[in-house]
Amino acid sequence: MKEIDFTPKLTGLFGHPVSENPTVLMIESAFKSLKLDNWRYITLDVPADNLKQAIDTIRLFKMRGVHLTIPHKVEAMKYVDVITKEAEMIGAINTIVNDNGKLTGYNTDGKGFMTSLQKDAKIVELKSKKAMILGSGGAARAIAVELAIEGINSLTIVNRTEKRGLDLINDLKRFDDLNLNFILWDHEIDINDIDILIQATSIGLYPNKDLPKIKYDQLTQNMLTCDLIPNPAITPFLKKCESNNARLLDGLGMLVYQGAIAFELWTKRSPSTDIMKRSLETFFQNN
Ligand code: NDP
Predict the structure, then answer these.
(1) Per the residue annotation, which of 32, 35, 62, 73 is the catalytic one?
(2) Is residue 83 in contact with ligand 1, taking CB distance under 6 Å?
(3) Is 73 a catalytic residue?
(4) pLDDT tens, residue by residue, 131-160
(5) Whose CA is nearest to atom 27 of ligand 1?
(6) Contact 74, 105 (CB under 8 A)
(7) 0.90 cut: is pTM over it?
(8) What integer pLDDT is reported at residue 220 of this predicted model?
């Protein structure tokens, strides 16, 4: 006889505010396609002051794990038992996995971007590449660390607030062979020598149509331009880069792949990223 178990395998998302976050759609589409009928993903509004209690409930309710979003990615590091080496270097976690009460914090954002770089932009060799990142926030940090781990030749960090940019540069100095530059963002930036340009700020987030201040006439068809903003996938920045002949990589891939990596950590199953992506595209088209 089949064993009866009405207790679901629980996963979810802690954030604040979080009610408009559509991650549940892509994770539950993957549960469905793999017939993981007993798995659930719940979106939970957790104010900053309640984060510790919320993380305690992961153990209490034997949740398999959660995603973390704004404002919890840094603070949550205090309340888990183990942090991966990459997440430690990035200084933030976006995924928790619960192994019988032992909580491990991961950061899948940067890995999500790297997967998109390989699968969507077909960039596999980084040792000869020069990248520039606009911004030094959480997403920029995650990507910078993963690019450094993969042995990118050089990284130029461009940021409006000097201290935040220099803090990131300092954290990257542990990578001995990495050429590092910082540019204070108070003028239009030269991009002449860059292979991969990554827009990791919220400039141009819908409905805003601002463009990051760079010298667009220096773009060429050999350059890959990336914007992390996932919706709409073709941002004002990417439109402008396309009209200057550059190659494009949107932020939807990163969003899907970071979710797929978390999904695999929780379920030990490989989800269809096509199905996950389609669920988000459908939502974004209709909202
Ligand atoms: P943070 O708030 O941590 O960092 C924001 C960064 O943008 C800072 O470096 C900030 O500079 C810079 N910035 C913001 N506004 C301006 C401006 N007007 N001019 C110049 N610089 C500006 O945000 P995150 O790193 O978490 O997110 C950044 C972007 O990445 C967001 O648009 C987010 O939607 C996207 N993202 C996408 C993900 C995906 O999976 N596709 C995952 C995570 C994020 P300063 O230090 O000077 O304030």
Answers:
(1) 73
(2) no
(3) yes
(4) 999 999 999 999 999 999 999 999 999 999
(5) 139
(6) no
(7) yes
(8) 97
